[in-house]
UniProtKB/TrEMBL annotation:
It comes from the Eukaryota. InterPro entries: Gal_Oxase/kelch_b-propeller, Kelch-typ_b-propeller. Residues 103-122, 336-399 are annotated as: Disordered. Residues 103-114, 340-399 have a biased composition (Low complexity). This is Kelch repeat protein. Keywords: Signal. Residues 1-20 form the signal peptide. The keyword Membrane does not apply.
Length: 427
């Protein structure tokens, strides 16, 4: 019967089973969310996690969650999340507006073909809302999201080649996070344990040498890394690094004076914490394709089976780690996530990191139109030798502008309508 067929097809449409790598993220008010299951859910504030009551989010326009290197990144200033690799097309960026519970999709152009070789390869610079993604074949790329804020713009954004790193990325599974306007690259093959390679955002410059961190040396290993956002919406000062050997959860702390890097007196914490490593226990679920998110008050892991583990109050207001902190398993787990992969794949790129490829991609004219009020304009040229294109992260990020209260549930509405129609035909 036709009506039965309609019902069946509608139901199967609603029950699309996805093979996803799920992720977790916080909104700017530190409510927790989990994405990538058969539905995406809001889990709410930390005082509800002991007995969670998840509420489903809008499905209209959400990512299909079919990518294997999915990253869910908070734009704290805009109370939005940018999803990279929500499907196999890493050039497409899904934007979730936390305040209006709505999705939109940002198209981009000039993306390098080897964008995103891990779940920690892209970093959103806090102050400029610019995405930086290190590729292993064609160097560092940037995508200026400052004009986008919390919903997609109608026109494509252009990826820009920045420059090649100062270190070899051969065999590197990119593991990056930001602290104080520096992007730290962890686990670069051949870098000493306890040291990280660095891109200095505001000078668009890869430091020629790695920076050593005091404290327990983290292994020279790939893994997952995220920044710990700052409650005052300043640039983050701390990084969570979970290496693939799960030896510890490493908290890296960094701060530099923007005007004069030799000045340490106005650091927001004890100066001996600058460029230091502290340790917390490793997560109990040792899944090296798990995703992590941090708020100033918690660290959360979701593994590829959808299990959620969290560590409350990992660091105090003085930026030192809590002693005796332990991971807890949430009684809720995200169902319908794939668990299709739990191991990061080594990049099998055969690229010799030749610099010629970057020349073919549009370089220059990097300055976005400044529309925002929260101007963070700064530009700098890469001063390294050779043909490195100069890059600027000049931008302005405006706070939550251009709210789009997009109608949610279009697809669901249509489906419900069809069911009603079919039911009507049966009667
Ligand atoms: C990944 O690459 C590193 C260095 O190239 C190598 O030591 C390691 O065994 C590789 N791991 C896998 C899972 O292939
Ligand atoms: C911390 O590391 C940065 C980056 O390498 C460096 O510029 C700065 O001098 C270091 N600060 C201290 C106090 O070690
Ligand atoms: C929960 O989060 C709030 C801020 O939203 C924070 O003030 C509080 O300390 C957190 N509680 C714990 C136990 O971490
Ligand atoms: C997941 O990880 C475990 C332990 O590392 C390993 O034994 C298993 O084969 C992995 N599964 C997949 C699908 O990679």
């Amino acid at each position: 019967m036709l009506s039965t067929l309609i019902i069946a097809s509608v139901l199967s449409l609603l029950a699309v089973s996805v093979q996803a790598v799920p992720c977790v993220q916080f909104d700017a008010n530190w409510n927790l969310y989990a994405f990538g299951g058969s539905s995406d859910v809001k889990l709410g504030a930390n005082d509800t996690w002991a007995s969670p009551s998840p509420s489903p989010l809008s499905t209209s326009g959400r990512p299909p969650w079919t990518g294997s290197n999915t990253q869910c990144i908070l734009s704290q200033t805009n109370n939005a999340m940018y999803v990279i690799g929500g499907d196999s097309d890493l050039s497409k960026i899904y934007i979730y507006n936390f305040a209006s519970d709505s999705w939109s999709t940002q198209s981009t152009s000039s993306a390098p073909s080897d964008l995103g070789n891990s779940r920690s390869s892209s970093v959103l610079d806090h102050d400029t809302n610019t995405l930086f993604t290190l590729t292993t074949g064609s160097g560092l790329y940037q995508l200026d999201m400052s004009s986008v804020t919390n919903s997609a713009s109608g026109s494509a954004l252009d990826w820009q080649a920045v420059e090649n790193p100062s270190f070899s990325v051969s065999g590197y599974t990119v593991t990056a996070a930001q602290a104080a306007n520096h992007i730290f690259y962890l686990g670069v093959p051949g870098t000493a344990a306890g040291s990280a390679d660095i891109f200095v955002v505001h000078f668009a410059y890869f430091q020629p040498t790695a920076q050593a961190f005091s404290g327990t040396a983290f292994p020279d290993s790939a893994g997952q890394a995220v920044s710990i956002p700052n409650a005052g919406d300043n640039v983050p000062y701390q990084i969570v690094f979970v290496p693939n050997d799960f030896s510890n959860t490493y908290i890296l702390t960094h701060w530099t004076d923007l005007g004069d890097y030799t000045v340490t007196s106005d650091a927001p914490f004890a100066t001996n914490l600058i460029n230091s490593t502290q340790t917390l226990p490793a997560p109990s679920s040792q899944d090296n394709a798990a995703a992590y998110a941090a708020s100033p008050y918690a660290l959360v892991q979701i593994d590829t089976s959808g299990n959620i583990n969290y560590l409350s109050s990992p660091v105090g207001s003085d930026y030192t780690v809590a002693s005796g902190a332990t991971w807890q398993r949430m009684s809720y787990s995200l169902s319908g996530s794939g668990g299709s992969s739990n191991s990061t794949t080594n990049s099998t790129n055969s690229a010799s990191a030749s610099s010629s490829s970057s020349a073919t991609v549009g370089v220059g004219s990097l300055a976005p139109s400044a529309t925002g009020s929260r101007s963070a304009s700064r530009s700098a040229s890469a001063s390294s030798a050779g043909s490195s294109p100069s890059a600027s992260a000049s931008s302005s990020s405006s706070s939550a502008a251009g709210k789009s209260l997009a109608a949610r549930g279009d697809v669901l509405g249509l489906a419900v309508g069809l069911v009603a129609l079919a039911a009507g035909m049966l009667l």
